Amino acid sequence: MTKPKVLIHIVTWNSEDTIARCIEHARAQEGFTFGEDLIIRVTDNASADTTVDCVAALGIEKGLELHRNTANLGFSGAHNQGAARCVEGGFDAMLILNPDVGLTSTCVQRMIEPLSRETRLGMATPKLLRAADDLSPLASRTIDAAGMILTPSLRHFDRGSGEVDRGGYEVSEEVFGATGACLLISRDCIEALALPSTISDETVWKIYPELKEGFASRVRLFDEAFFAYREDADLSWRAGRMGWRCVYTPAAVANHVRVVTPERRSKLPEILNRLSVRNRFLLQWNNWDLSCGFASLLWGIIVRNLLVILGVLLKERSSLPGLVEAIRLAPRARSIYRATKGSSPSGGFCVRAEER
Predict the structure, then answer these.
(1) Among 322, 231, 328, which Cα is nearest to 274's?
(2) C-alpha closest to that of 246 among 144, 331, 153, 177
(3) Smallest Cα–Cα separation from 214: which of 205, 222, 223, 206?
(4) CA distance 92 to 117
(5) DSSP assignment, residue 131?
(6) What CA–CA distance (Å, rounded) separates 23 from 60?
(7) Which of 88, 144, 146, 311 could lock 169 by a disulfide, CB 3.0 to 4.6 Å apart?
(8) What are phi and psi of 288, to 5 degrees?
(9) 83-133: per-residue pLDDT in tens?
């Protein structure tokens, strides 16, 4: 059996504190030969710090590539550059990796094993533990993510997030999706889920003109309208609708420095909250229909959205531009839904009914 060839793709933006350690962990994956069947590509989104110098100091060689964008293309646009590198380079899979994640030595090997066995199993996600600044796990062994779920109120959560790891997430199982901090996806799945060329990005370019340059050279795995935040949930939902599955692999372990959490919303920069508001609507418009069930219509489309809109109008007015952008992008979003409508009767849900 031919050994799989994996591209580890890391998008950086002012990531000088962790990128060197992230690459060191990624280089040391067991079962692969670095520079042959394991390649690391860093795509930098116009960092203003020493991130690029940190990567260059490690030695740009056969196994380590560095691409520098002249503008910030966001998480989505930059990882779509990696998707193109994966497809064109003949890789079997791409590991989407945050620069603040430290992989354990067998992480990639454990994740790719189930993908190699089943053709419609297109994505795998590890057990992520909360990490200290040096990417080592916290002494409390706290779960960061054990896959992603989507609730009837159309809220997506990382399973187990914030819980002490007491062995409750040791079973490998299919989940709704995976956090973009550490997600392995097969090339076949990338090609199947990429947005078709019939979807116009003219409206997106009016918001993010920097995304127009080099557009044709990217594979639109992630919807670039999201720019950053919730794009992983959108990809997961689209995958489920189109009949592709995601597996949680607890034998694969990685450590993640978690910055954005729901309980810290009031302390986050205004731009992140604005993206969160806009992208929650894009997530629904890209994917939702009545097959998701009455509960999602009531709690997600009606109740929850009304609460968000009232919250923006009465309390978080800095997020009002996010609502405006969502309305501008709505026709394109429904075009994406129609173009990617699959055969999954459940809409790709992995629901925990007690959460609304």
Answers:
(1) 322
(2) 177
(3) 205
(4) 13
(5) B
(6) 12
(7) 146
(8) -80, 145
(9) 999 999 999 999 999 999 999 999 999 999 999 888 899 999 999 999 999
The alpha helices in 45-176, defined as continuous H runs, are 51-57, 74-88, 107-117
- Give tens-digit pLDDT for 260-307: 655 544 556 888 999 999 999 999 999 999 999 999 999 999 999 999
> Alpha helices, DSSP H only, in 28-104?
51-57, 74-88
Distance CA 301, CA 132 (A): 38
What is the Cα–Cα distance from 327 to 333, expressed in whole angstroms?
10
Instruction: Report the CATH number of the 6-261 domain.
Output: 3.90.550.60
Angle at 176 (CA atoms; ends 101, 159), nearest 5 degrees: 55
pLDDT along the chain (356 residues), means of 10: 90 97 97 97 98 94 94 98 98 98 98 90 98 94 97 95 96 97 98 97 98 97 97 98 97 90 59 94 97 94 96 95 97 97 60 44
Which helix (H) or strand (E) segment holds residue 66: the answer is strand 64-69
Cα–Cα distance, 111 to 232 (Å, whole number): 17
Run of H or E residues at 186: strand 182-186
Could you tell me if 184 and 115 are in contact, meaning their C-beta atoms sit under 8 angstroms apart?
yes
Using alpha carbons, list the distances in angstroms from residue 98 to 12, 165, 237, 320: 8, 22, 21, 29
Are 42 and 12 in contact, with CB atoms under 8 Å apart?
Answer: yes
